[in-house]
Amino acid sequence: MIGERVATVTEATFDRLVLQAEPPALVEFWxxxxxxxxxxxxxxxxxxxxxxxxxxxxxxxxxQNPGLVxxxxxxxxxxxxxxxxxxxxxxxxxxxPKGRLVAELAEFLPTxxx
Length: 114
Prior knowledge:
Glutaredoxin; 4 helices; alpha/beta; about 110 residues; about 25% strand
């Protein structure tokens, strides 16, 4: 599902929606109780709208999907993972301003504008 919206993925849908995605995928692991996650959320939403059709942007609720948290060794929230061809290419831990986040992701998601 690629569009202007962020895809919500679960343990049941992660492999199909993220690992088998044709474009690169940016996945945010987050939780309701996490203030930095609430701060970063709108930035991730903006990236989804800006990258519609070029990057799959998805979110994983860490509390609801502990198997994925264990599988990817998520130790802090928020954590962003970039996948290309089903392989993790990058990991960013913690919230950042949008400009800094885009600069860090641009190496792995070349469609991002700086």
